[in-house]
Amino acid sequence: MNFDRWKSNDDYTYAYKIFNRYHTYMNSLYWSYAPAYAYSQIAYSQKKKEGGQLPTTHELFNLSGKDSERVASNLDDWSRHFKEFDNWTRLNALLSLNSYFEIYLSSVVSLAVESDIGLQFAASKSVDGLTIVKNGNSRGYSFFDISREITMGEWSKRRKRFKEIFGSAPQELTTYEKDLEKIRNIRNSVAHSFGRDIEKSRSRSQTDILEIQRISIKTLKKYMSIIRAVARSIDEQLLNNHIGDYEAVFYYHEIKSTLPVNNHVKEFKKKLNSLYVKQKSFSYCEQLIEYYDSL
């Protein structure tokens, strides 16, 4: 394994690795809740089928304690509330999904522009962004300002701006544009108007509670799959064309002052390999350090 500044030895950026961890985490959270919901609704349905007088919610689930009075005593009322909460849980799962996806977008886009600073002047790879970082002259460059143009507004405009910056955009941004726009709109309604239509919620003539946005588990799974596919496609393009091994060299830049003079390369190799699945060789780390010193 040899070091090549513009060719990564890894399959994805570290930013994507963090995104994937959040994605797995959110998936685990939702599915830890799903069996409890299904079990309680089955218990409720069985009591309904038995006929006769329904037990109270407290009797069916043996509820007690100071907060038990907050639960609707009527079993039908409780079931209706829980079904609404089930939908609300999916809406908030989608809100979180959109949030960590946009954090990833901001991170990977700013990473690509920081790495390939010439992108701002239509001169890709003409200057290694590490030169700017190493010499402490990066304060005048608004990497995150550029990334905001990809993380805000309608997706048609985001895709257009992505192409302007990087020359092309992954096909997934076109294929899933309508779905991404639906996700964005749902996110806005959940974040700004409790899952309701924003404009109707703000109307002074509105006196009743509006119907909440509905989202099925099938739709949530679909959107989670789409977000992962879009993130992966963006990561692949930016890693291969503009980031390369920037993250590894930047990591060296961040920790080099903490490395011992003796066994300098060996200690860096140990720390670097703790971050990645694909292990880097001593020769790779040596070449990386030599490259950094040459900047």
3D architecture notes:
With 295 residues, the protein is mainly alpha-helical. Helices cover 67% and strands 0% of the residues. It has 13 helices and no strands. Helix 12 (264-273) packs across helix 13. It is elongated. 25% of the residues are buried. The mean pLDDT is 90.
Q: How many discrete structural domains?
A: 2
Helix content: 55-70%
Radius of gyration: 25 Å
Low confidence ranges: none
How far do the termini sit from each other? 22 Å
Content-based structural category: mainly alpha
Describe what is shown at a glance:
The protein has 295 residues and is mainly α. Helices cover 67% and strands 0% of the residues. The chain has helices at 14-50, 57-61, 75-115, 129-134, 143-151, 155-166, 171-175, 177-193, 198-202, 217-243, 246-255, 264-273, 282-294.
List keywords for this structure.
67% helix, mainly alpha, 295 residues, 2 domains, single chain, 13 helices
Write the layout of secondary structure elements.
Elements: H1 14-50, H2 57-61, H3 75-115, H4 129-134, H5 143-151, H6 155-166, H7 171-175, H8 177-193, H9 198-202, H10 217-243, H11 246-255, H12 264-273, H13 282-294
